[in-house]
Design the sequence.
């Protein structure tokens, strides 16, 4: 199958530091190539892939200080996709919704994975206006606000099995927070949990410009007040394995409708249990009492830290291998591609039909 993967340009594929969507695009692309498919990746020029790379910017936009507006760069990307669209059986978009007007004439051979939150009020009229565009969710919970969308399925994220090695022992003796400093990720809750349990907490997270004030006014003062809390900055792929593998548990104290939560399965790959608040996709990803604990408040989170030793790190790794491998993810997407292609072949008349000659269905 000839497949185009169209990635955001904000980060490279895979990203050097933070970047969940681009990371998933990378894992999916490499797995599809390994399975023998012809894959073309439209992405930033500093991306690394075994597929054919179509560089649509010189480098990731987030790391280019001259970039002020990402939209013109993505329009250039879309023009390149439009120019080459007839080369592919399936075009798989990962750039939210900017391309919807462009792909309307050939929507039946496209699919768009929606990676972000969908409960924003501006989105409902948009998806009502484009009911024919095939879309995929990354959790069942994510799609609740948009029941009218043309859902083709839910595909949970997956990771290469050899990406993050299993760690049988949590040698670091600390709690971990990994991701992004923002109000909805609730690093303040993580600090409170560490303060109440007396355990060290290491925070590895990026700080976006829009969240700088939240860091300066809320989180940084909390870190300064608690000597057992350390902010270590962003971690890359090489240091993430050690950071997660040595942790006693990953804290995922979110307060928003999380579409998936990639860091949860990254921790599980290391055998590290997760303590997560019951929001969004959490009950779909985490198996309470097996791969971690799902809690509803700070008291329950503090109690869960005390029970974390009852979980089997080897069993957590086994559940990761069964449920969240890149191979399983790619196979799920191939099923979506096949259904779209089958529907398209049945819907589009063959030349003989167009000439009035009966054909065999």
Sequence:
């Amino acid at each position: 199958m000839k497949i185009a993967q169209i990635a955001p340009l904000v980060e490279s594929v895979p990203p050097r530091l933070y970047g969940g969507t681009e990371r998933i695009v990378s894992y999916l692309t490499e797995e599809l190539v390994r399975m023998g498919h012809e894959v073309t990746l439209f992405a930033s020029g500093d991306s690394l892939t075994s597929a054919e790379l179509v560089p649509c910017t010189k480098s990731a936009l987030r790391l280019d200080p001259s970039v002020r507006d990402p939209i013109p760069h993505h329009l250039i990307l879309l023009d390149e996709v439009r120019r080459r669209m007839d080369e592919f059986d399936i075009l798989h978009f990962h750039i939210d919704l900017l391309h919807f007007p462009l792909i309307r004439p050939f929507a039946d051979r496209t699919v768009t994975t929606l990676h972000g939150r969908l409960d924003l009020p501006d989105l409902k009229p948009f998806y009502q206006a484009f009911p024919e565009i095939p879309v995929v969710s990354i959790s069942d919970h994510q799609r609740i606000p948009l029941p009218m969308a043309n859902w083709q399925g839910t595909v949970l994220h997956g990771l290469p099995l050899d990406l993050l090695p299993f760690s049988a022992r949590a040698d670091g003796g600390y709690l971990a927070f990994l991701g992004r400093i923002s109000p909805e990720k609730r690093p303040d809750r993580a600090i409170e949990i560490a303060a109440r349990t007396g355990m060290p907490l290491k925070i590895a997270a990026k700080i976006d410009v829009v969240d700088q004030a939240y860091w300066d006014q809320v989180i940084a003062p909390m870190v300064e007040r608690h000597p057992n809390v350390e902010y270590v900055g962003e971690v890359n792929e090489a240091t993430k394995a050690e950071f997660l593998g040595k942790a006693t548990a990953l804290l995922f104290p979110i307060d928003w409708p999380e579409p998936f939560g990639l860091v949860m399965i990254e921790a599980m790959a290391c055998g590290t249990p997760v303590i997560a608040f019951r929001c969004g996709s959490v009950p779909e990803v985490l198996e309470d009492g097996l791969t971690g604990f799902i809690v509803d408040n700070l008291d329950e989170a503090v109690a869960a830290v005390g029970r974390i030793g009852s979980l089997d790190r080897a069993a957590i790794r086994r559940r990761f291998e069964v449920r969240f491998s890149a191979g399983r993810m790619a196979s799920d997407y191939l099923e979506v591609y096949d259904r779209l292609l089958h529907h398209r072949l049945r819907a589009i008349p063959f030349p003989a039909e167009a000439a009035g000659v009966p054909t065999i269905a």
User: Anything to note?
Assistant: Confidence is low (pLDDT under 50) at residues 348-361. The first strand starts at residue 2 and ends at 6.
